């Protein structure tokens, strides 16, 4: 594959219908501070290209969770992959549900018909075409997304009198803000919260998530994989910029009359479909372009999730179980089994979407925010293994499980308690509703079929209210911005994993297969002299002559702390340290 279609697929995978429908309403409600997420995406792109992907590329694993078995053992591999499968299934169910709601609002087609049609089409082309088809369809769908967003932006700007006029209106009403440098982690959106906090989430997605690693490693060379990751960033920047500009235009049109307060819609996330019907409905075909745009975003995410789950289930569960009894059959029919897994997971994610449609409020909010909550522990496991050579199996398991428990406490607590924000909500108005009411009557009738449970995420779209004088002490803990969830989960996992490892006889760095590790200081500071960088490798010996064929493994019993004698007897003279490791990476 060429890096360009892979880069477009990388960009399209996690810019789902949730991004397209949720970001304009975020800008309308809370202003433009969210745009700092493009800085987090840039940090994640650099980290993925030069820290994580080189490790996976050298190991040549089909499932990125195979890393855990080589580094920590099969138990860590299984518990991490189970959480990934649960995370992906729930997220894909929501991604399937969101565009179906938009399609129902614009066309009047039943929600059930939308769900069945979308799930069937996506599962069919993913099953028949495999990874290559998914990559090319993702590239096409990215193009459709850009065209659809441009159509909405251009026609919407015309309706408000030009984008500069929309910007002026938004600025006068406090929606244009980029310089909130509050260091308080309870600040929902500040420069540090969004730029730094979101970088952990995007690092997880682009650095260690199966869907993205699978795409990057499909290229013939590591250099091309890194090029594809860097080419993906302009695509991310373009989409986020377009949806943010659309949010400004939406505010320019609806600033005198909040559609939610006017009862034209039930939720802020319905703003974009309302806007499309009002602004594009009079132009033949443009409403269809918008629907194609939303569905392209949804299909690219679902197809990527299906291929990722298929690879994980086949490599982490079916092959290990069957290798003692029917290994030859698995090798012979592996492609057919993989396709069958895609069909089964497609049916399951349809069931999850149907289940989501039956609930309102808390369940739906949890289904989206769960992605950020569960990403932290998985990301922490990879960081513990790749950057901290002392981490052993016991430490990895303890860190992972306690991090999951901690993040569930934080995430569920914030969803249930819903503590009032410390920062007041930006004002909205209804003084212009009367003159717009008749014009929007038919739109209101159409949009009324959309369930009130549609939301981007509880922390992202939650309403704010005045702080209560007397409140539980934990409210400040629950107020931590959702943008920090992945980073916080990662830090908890790494801290506990390293501490427990030292308490239970840590791994000797000299016994580690250096292909499993990243010399992070060589990557970040390649200009430092060797005498400074060498101790910063923490005893890991890079460039072993016995590693290229993958024969050297970590041989450490975490309970008895007995190193395999064969590894002990290894002649140190055969271990070569590269003088400039950064050029190799």
TrEMBL record:
Cited CDD domains: SLC5sbd_NIS-SMVT (cd11492)
Predominant place of localization: membrane
Claim: Cell membrane is one of the keywords in the record: yes
Keywords: Cell membrane, Ion transport, Membrane, Signal, Sodium, Sodium transport, Transmembrane, Transmembrane helix, Transport
Transmembrane annotation, as ranges: 35-57, 78-97, 109-128, 135-154, 189-208, 229-254, 286-314, 335-356, 368-388, 395-416, 482-505
Membrane topology: Multi-pass membrane protein
Gene Ontology cellular component list: plasma membrane
GO molecular function, one term: symporter activity
Compartments where located: Cell membrane
Record InterPro entries: Na/Glc_symporter_sf, Na/solute_symporter, Sodium:Solute_Symporter_SSF
Any single biological process term in GO: sodium ion transport
Protein biosynthesis is among the record's keywords: no
Signal sequence coordinates: 1-19
Family designation: Belongs to the sodium:solute symporter (SSF) (TC 2.A.21) family.
PANTHER family: LD47995P-RELATED (PTHR42985:SF40), SODIUM-COUPLED MONOCARBOXYLATE TRANSPORTER (PTHR42985)
Protein name: Sodium-coupled monocarboxylate transporter 1
Organism of provenance: Dreissena polymorpha
């Amino acid at each position: 594959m060429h890096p360009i279609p892979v880069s477009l697929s990388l960009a399209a995978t996690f810019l789902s219908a949730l991004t397209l429908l949720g970001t304009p309403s975020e800008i309308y409600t809370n202003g433009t501070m969210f745009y700092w997420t493009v800085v987090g995406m840039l940090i994640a792109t650099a980290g993925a290209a030069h820290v994580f992907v080189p490790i996976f590329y050298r190991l040549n694993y089909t499932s990125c969770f195979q890393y855990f078995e080589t580094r920590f053992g099969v138990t860590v591999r299984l518990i991490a992959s189970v959480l990934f499968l649960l995370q992906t299934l729930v997220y894909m169910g929501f991604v399937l549900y969101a565009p179906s709601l938009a399609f129902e609002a614009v066309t009047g087609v039943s929600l059930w018909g939308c769900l069945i049609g979308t799930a069937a089409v996506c599962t069919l082309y993913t099953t028949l075409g495999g990874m290559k088809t998914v990559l090319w369809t993702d590239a096409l769908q990215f193009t459709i997304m850009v065209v659809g967003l441009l159509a909405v932006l251009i026609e919407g700007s015309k309706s408000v009198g030009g984008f500069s006029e929309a910007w002026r209106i938004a600025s006068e009403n406090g929606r244009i803000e980029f310089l909130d440098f509050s260091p308080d982690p309870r600040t929902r959106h500040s420069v540090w919260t969004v730029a730094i906090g979101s970088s952990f989430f995007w690092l997880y997605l682009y650095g260690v998530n199966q869907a993205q690693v699978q795409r990057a490693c499909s290229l013939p060379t590591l250099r091309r994989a890194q090029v594809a990751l860097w080419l993906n960033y302009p695509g991310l920047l373009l989409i986020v910029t377009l949806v943010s500009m659309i949010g400004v235009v939406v505010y320019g049109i609806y600033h005198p009359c909040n559609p939610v307060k006017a009862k034209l819609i039930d939720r802020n996330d319905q703003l974009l479909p309302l806007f499309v019907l009002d602004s594009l409905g009079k132009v033949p075909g443009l409403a269809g372009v918008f629907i194609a745009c939303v569905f392209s975003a949804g299909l690219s995410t679902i197809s990527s999730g299906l291929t990722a789950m298929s690879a994980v289930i086949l490599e982490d569960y079916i092959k290990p179980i069957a290798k003692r009894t029917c290994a030859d059959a698995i090798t012979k029919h592996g492609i057919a089994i993989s396709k069958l897994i895609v069909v089964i997971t497609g049916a399951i994610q349809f069931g999850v979407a149907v289940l989501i449609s039956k609930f309102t409020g808390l369940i739906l909010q949890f289904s989206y925010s769960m992605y950020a909550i569960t990403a932290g522990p998985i990301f922490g496991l990879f960081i513990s293994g790749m950057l901290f050579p002392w981490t052993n199996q016991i430490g990895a398991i303890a860190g992972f499980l306690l991090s999951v428990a901690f993040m569930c406490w934080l995430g569920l607590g914030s969803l249930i308690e819903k503590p009032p924000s410390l920062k007041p909500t930006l004002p909205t108005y209804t003084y212009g509703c009367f003159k717009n009411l008749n014009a929007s009557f038919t739109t209101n009738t159409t949009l009324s079929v959309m369930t009130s449970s549609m939301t981007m995420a509880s922390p992202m779209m939650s309403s704010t209210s005045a702080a209560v004088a007397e409140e539980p002490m934990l409210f400040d803990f629950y107020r931590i911005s959702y943008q920090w969830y992945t980073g916080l989960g990662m830090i908890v996992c790494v801290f506990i994993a390293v501490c427990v490892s030292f308490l239970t006889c840590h791994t000797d760095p000299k016994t580690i297969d250096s292909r499993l590790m990243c010399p992070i200081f060589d990557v970040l500071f390649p200009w430092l002299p060797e005498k400074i960088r060498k101790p910063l490798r923490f005893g890991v010996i890079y460039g072993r002559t016995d590693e290229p064929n993958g024969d050297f493994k970590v041989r450490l019993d975490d309970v008895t702390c007995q190193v395999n004698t064969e590894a002990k007897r290894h002649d140190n003279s055969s271990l070569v340290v590269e003088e400039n490791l950064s050029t190799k990476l």
